[in-house]
Amino acid sequence: MTSAPPTPTNGTSPTDRAALFIPLVSVVDFHHARGPEVEKWFGVDEGHDPAAEYDWTLLPFMALSDGAHAATEDFSYFTLLRPTTDQAPATSLFGISCTRQMDASQLLVRPADVTRSTVQKAVVVITDSPQYFGTLRERLSVVTKAWFAQREFTDTEILRRFQESLAEEKERGALHDDEDRDQYLGMSLRELVREFKWQTLVLLKCCLLQPKMLFFGSRCERLCMMQFSLISLIPGLLRNLQDSAGPELDNYEKKLSKPTSLRTSDRNSLLSYMGLPLQIFGKGSLFGPYTPLQQLDILADFGTKSYIVGSTNSLLLQQKDRYSDILINLDEDTINVTSTSLKAALQLSVADRRWIDFITQNVNDTWDDANPGRPKTMGYVGSEEFIRLQFEEYLLSLISSVKYHSHLARFAHNPKMLLPHIEGDPSHDFGLDFVDAWARTENYRIWDTHTDSHLFDVVEPKHPCAGGLTIDDVQRRITQQVQELHLDERFAQGKEVLGRNLAAGREKASTMFNKFYADMEALREAQRRRAEEAKLQSPTASSARGAAGGHNEKNAGIASGVDLAKAQQTVQAVGAKAGAFMNSWATWAGEKRKAAGWGKSGGSESPTASNSGGGGGWGSGWGKSKQNRVSQASSDDTASERDPMKGVKSPRMSTSSSVMTGDGGGLHEKVPLTRGAGRGSFSGESLLEVAGSESGISSQPASPQYVRGRALSRASGAATAAAQQAAQEQQNSAVSSPAPVLAPAPTPAAAIPDVIPEVSEAKDASGIRKDENNNEGDKADTKEKEQEKRKSVVAAALPAKTIVLEEPPRMPTPELTPAEVAAAEEAASAQSVWGKDGP
């Protein structure tokens, strides 16, 4: 294809527009009573007010955006409609303002009308094209900062010189050479793709469908830049926004003509021939990067069919259904499509999703947080130019495919008119719903009217990522969805939260266990103190609990040591008394022996008495026959059956013995003899008193055997009483030692004599008494029965005694000579002692 001279695509050349308008500078102040107002103009004749001449009543509100007081410096971008004049038709102007604030106390000269603590002002630059906003923004920031640094707002020399420099550049044509080039400084496509990912393509398609698009964000500069970045994806649109300030403007279409030539080496010629830019801001459309609330009436006007506007006021969010078909929330990075028909048309096809995912992946792979506008690889892939060329290729493919779609519809019955290398309808890869919706818009009508019908001959009608769904698409889709979920970040946050909760739980559990352990220790200490106090207050109760609680050997050993020492002292005292009694008895017995002449009248004893065993002689009970002894044993067995404790001997249980006494009838009785607690020592009634009681009955001296038996009986009784008292003291003073074994002492009637059998055996051995008549057995049996009866009476009369003493050794029976025995029998025969006193 041969090249041809380029055909202008708009009615007003950039040179003419440059000659018509000179950039203006103004100062907007926020008055505490009147609100925002234009304070001064630079670049106009003295006495002229462009705001009043062009009806720019909303200029102060556009310059001072809502929420600008929250930042030290903020920028606002807006559009102004310059009405028709005698020199030029109505057109759109573009303004950029830099807002700053400072403390009123820092002013060198504080005016009287400054009543607030802060002073807020904006420096505004108004130009005829947003193409240079990138460079203009940096220069405006420096000038505004320098003016505020003076701390004297009446000195505006720096602002005047700044406007003069802008006008001088315009007159010299310093910017004329770059008018055909797109300037994108400050409009980052990488950030746009990074934040919205695959929805970036949705936003571009939405712009082509010309709905009511509302952007919301708390930061005004970011809000405006996102809109400029989005419309900059349509090649050449930033240089042709002369109809974007009002819905009544339609200068672009009026001066637009259909291109008839093409230079393939010239990119601008190619774009113009293909019908670009797609003019989305024509009649009935509006573009307001920042739109204050005072401009809502224009949005709700019947003549306003579509617009792209931005707002920082959250009141619009409450009326989003009324003022928007699609809401883009930049604070939350969300897109909300409120129109049902629009939502169906914006569904991406498989090829669309594959294409935008490819761009998104390249941006993410080359992302640098330190410099978001430049790839970290410093390469071409993923850069701003790479993204723009990808979207330019997509739009050219879309235009070509839609033209071929129309061609197929026109020549559906003529296969020769179809392209042989193109299968089917390539517009399906862009979405049939979208193509049908786009065909009903104003920008499609303008494009289709002013372009050739065979554009598919210049650009191949095929989607850049044409093809059906493949496994790679599914894998890439899943990967991106997983990345969109931010599982790593959520898991990291969840892990951090879980770690904090676990640490707090461990700390709480440790605190709880420590407190529980401290409480238990305090409880134990309190119990221990109470136990010690109880031991001090009630030793007896403490000893009983100690005995029932498991026989604490250590405590028992200590306590028993103290108790045994007391008992030993008591026993020693009783033994000393018993020894004194025995010594006194021995002295008394020796005197009686000498006075009575015991042992000297052995030959004068009566044969009758000695043979019969009666008469109450001393030998009456010593010479029992074998039969009598058997009877005696049987009676003893009977007594043992009545008393189970009889005959049980233990080292800690006292036993009882008895001595035999006789009366004139030859009856034998057993006098209980209780063993003492000491070795050979007795306590109780004095043996001298016993002897005295016996001597008071008869003038004749009592038998030594009788006296000895009574003495032993009384001594044994005294020892028993003393031992019982010692045992009682031991029980009262016991603390933790186990209680001693207590055994009831057998009654005197049930006691088995331990001394008399020894004396009887001694008499049998010496031949003093022999059984002379076996016929006396019956008489002995009768006597034995009487004796058992007496014993039962005596046992009932005498209370049982409990003794807690060690078993003492047996006291040997003293050996008597035959003469002493005979003398004792003769003295016993003279008195009937047994019948009167009793055992």
TrEMBL record:
PROSITE patterns linked to this entry: DENN
Protein name per UniProt: Transport protein Avl9-domain-containing protein
Family note: Belongs to the AVL9 family.
Source species of the chain: Apodospora peruviana
Bias (Gly residues): 612-622
Pfam families for this protein: Avl9
InterPro entries the UniProt entry points to: ABL9/DENND6_dom, DENND11/AVL9_GEFs, Tripartite_DENN
Bilayer-spanning residue ranges: none
GO cellular component, one term: cytoplasm
Ranges of biased composition (kind: Low complexity): 712-740, 748-757, 819-830
Domain annotation UDENN: ranges: 23-465
Polar residues bias locations: 628-637
Coiled coil: none
Region (Disordered): 528-554, 593-839
Biased composition range(s): Basic and acidic residues: 760-791
